[in-house]
Amino acid sequence: MRCVIARFPFDLTKSGVLESMKGVKPEEVTGASVTIGRRTYPVKQVGQVVTRQDRRDFSAGEVLRAMTQLGFTCRDLSQVAAPERILSPLQKASAMLGAPSAV
Asked: Count H helices, E strands: the chain?
């Protein structure tokens, strides 16, 4: 499949991406991610390995679009579960009492 990432055309195949990512240790995922094989990689790491470009040269959206078209499972920032907020004792007590009613 031909795609453009950072204004450069690339001919990517699913098997080519699998081969490129073989042996690459996934970094910690903090945002958008791509599942390749049994591992989940940050989108920018996949883009850097596959295109051999600096991560600042392309957007996560460009790589997400290309990986989705190739058939990989991708998760965007909006699909990543936000960590549950830890409440202080005062906030817990306030939440148990409920919000004041508008009378």
From this structure: 4, 5
